[in-house]
TrEMBL record:
It comes from Bradyrhizobium archetypum. PANTHER family: PERMEASE COMPONENT OF TUNGSTATE ABC TRANSPORTER. The chain crosses the membrane at residues 26-48, 60-81, 87-114, 150-177, 197-218. It comes from the Bacteria. SUPFAM superfamilies: MetI-like (SSF161098). Residues 22-218 form the ABC transmembrane type-1 domain. It is found in: Cell membrane. Gene3D superfamilies: MetI-like (1.10.3720.10). Keywords: Membrane, Transmembrane, Transmembrane helix. InterPro entries: ABC_perm_TupB-like, MetI-like, MetI-like_sf. This is ABC transporter permease.
Length: 230
């Protein structure tokens, strides 16, 4: 992308480099949300339905992790994936996979904490019915997750918003390599540092449109699902 063109011109002209950046941004963010959901939703539901020593401390910690500093997460993932780190043999550093790992670590606490609150509220409402059905712990978790499936869309969207806006962590572990690990947010940071504010603003507007479009699509799917479920 050159300095004498705007983001709008790049979009209208179908610029291949811009659309590659957009594709990578969506791939990394959506992959991180899926992985974080696979971990965070069962974890949040388990914490909501299980009583164990130190549970309140775990809840406080989980809520605190929602505000994890991205650069600290990026540094931790960098150390883990570096050649001398425990996962260095996989060669993931400065690849999209490393960026997905970093975003998953950032997003998972958000999804887990919001899931815990949602499932706990439902448990208080349906505790008598589920107890009468004589469901085991796993049965209760599965039943309440299914019942809360539409409400959990909000948790997933919150996670996607965090992932889509991330720049610090993925800059550290991805390196912002043109054509390979450059995303919308890292491209905006780069263009701003170069002083190309019009292009940076244009890219920012493109990112906002993408985030709104994803949220609108998820909301539409949720509403359609609610209508079908009655």
């Amino acid at each position: 992308m050159t300095n004498d063109v705007s983001a709008l011109h790049l979009v209208l002209s179908g610029d291949a480099a811009l659309f590659a950046i957009v594709r990578l941004s969506l791939y990394v963010s959506l992959s991180a949300v899926v992985l974080a959901a696979l971990i965070g939703i069962p974890l949040g539901a388990w914490i909501a339905l299980t009583r164990f020593p130190g549970r309140q401390g775990v809840i406080v910690l989980l809520n605190a992790l929602m505000g994890l500093p991205p650069v600290v997460v990026g540094l931790a993932v960098y150390l883990a994936l570096s050649r001398s780190g425990p996962l260095g043999a996989f060669g993931l550093l400065f690849t999209p996979s490393a960026m997905i790992v970093a975003q998953t670590v950032l997003v998972m606490p958000i999804i887990a904490a919001l899931t815990r609150q949602t499932i706990e509220d439902l448990w208080l409402e349906y505790r008598d019915e589920l107890t009468a059905m004589n469901l085991g712990p796993l049965g209760r978790v599965a039943a309440l997750i299914w019942d809360a499936r539409f409400s959990l869309v909000t948790a997933l969207l919150a996670g996607f918003g965090r992932a889509a806006a991330e720049v610090g962590a993925i800059m550290i572990v991805g390196g912002n390599i043109e054509g390979f690990t450059r995303t919308m947010t890292t491209a905006i940071a780069l263009e701003t540092s170069k002083g190309d504010l019009p292009l940076a603003v244009g890219l920012g507007l493109v990112l906002i449109v993408i985030v709104i479009a994803v949220n609108a699509l998820a909301w539409s799917v949720r509403r359609a699902g609610e209508r079908l479920a009655g």
